[in-house]
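Hey, weird one. I pasted the DNA polymerase III subunit delta sequence into the form twice and got a warning about non-standard characters only the second time. First submission, copied straight from the form history:
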Amino acid sequence: MAVWDDVVGQEKVTAQLTAAARDADAYVTAEAEGRGSAVLSGSAMTHAWLFTGPPGSGRSTAARAFAAALQCVSPDRALGGAPGCGFCDGCHTAMVGTHADVEVIRTDLLTIGVKETREQVRRAQMSPAGGRWQVIVLEDADRLTEGAGNVLLKAVEEPAPRTVWLLCAPSTEDVLPTIRSRCRQLALRTPPVEAVADLLMRRDGIEPAMAAYAARATQGHIGRARRLATDERARTRRAAVLKLPQRVADVGGALRAAQELIDAAAEDAKEVAEEHDARETEELRAALGASEGKGSRLPRGTAGAMKELQDRQKRRATRTQRDSLDLALSDLTGFYRDVLARQLGSGAALGNEEAVDAVARLAEDSVPEQTLRRIEAVLECREALDRNVAPLLAVEAMAMTLRAG
Ligand SMILES: [Zn+2]
């Protein structure tokens, strides 16, 4: 299987990246054979790329596939085959995450700071250890703080000859203008529902009916589709969210529904914390040289490191909570979109098969203007959360508007 197999519904991007990997390969070969000083300018390859696309479109999957293609050492290349065979040592280790010259930076925090970025910039100045390129994939370039962005800028402006930066972000507007203007931009689209269903069957071995349901319900968001298809709890949660529109008929119901959404998000954050926090804390204590056992004292001068870890854990909890709410809100938007489609008599396929009856009932009982106001209310709630409005307040305000329509 070629490295591009999991990049679904992005033919244009894949073609462009294949061409770039080909030129990149020719460049390294020319350099290795000492054929003058090879140049990249004017070729399909360049040192900095920005992958944009809506959440779930597969930005980081595409970036990783490209990273693998850049490391491809398949002998077929000499015979005119495109790099990115998927089988050779270069492709394989890059795909599974063990290639020494592919660094993937992902964060579960809200921001990436100056300190972490400096580390990557240092790395970027080195030559590849054994591979063909030094590749740094920055999955959440939209989370760089301004200071971190400025640190990165210098590295992107004057790249080492065989270093490639692959930045990923939802849209170009999410990245500092100075940085994005130095990157070649690649826009991914929301993959078609059929392509997502196909991927779930092929890659994850999911049954056709379940794959089709999950792909349609999540409207082309690959990660969410996979989670919905494989996680019973995610399906239960979604079913509860889809019942919300019927529960907001009175004030009490609206407020209760709001509280439940918040509780469910908090529950998710707690689960993630239980999974990681204790282990991370114990590991850090050991690294700092504390003796065994929770109660033992930390060595002098190490409290700062412990405090830093606790802050990170707190920020991660906030982020998990936010992601979980965001998922619920996107399910709600989908529900009201289906109501609207029905009211306007469009033949668009329903994303919410399991709520067909509820959609039909609400479509009967309300008018399109109300549905539009409700969609607006959900979007406003999302924006309020982005502005750090207290989640319960934002969700309550939304529930009240959903009630009144
Ligand atoms: Zn290969």
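That's the output from the first submission. The warning seems to come from a hidden character in my clipboard, not from the data itself. The mean pLDDT is 89.
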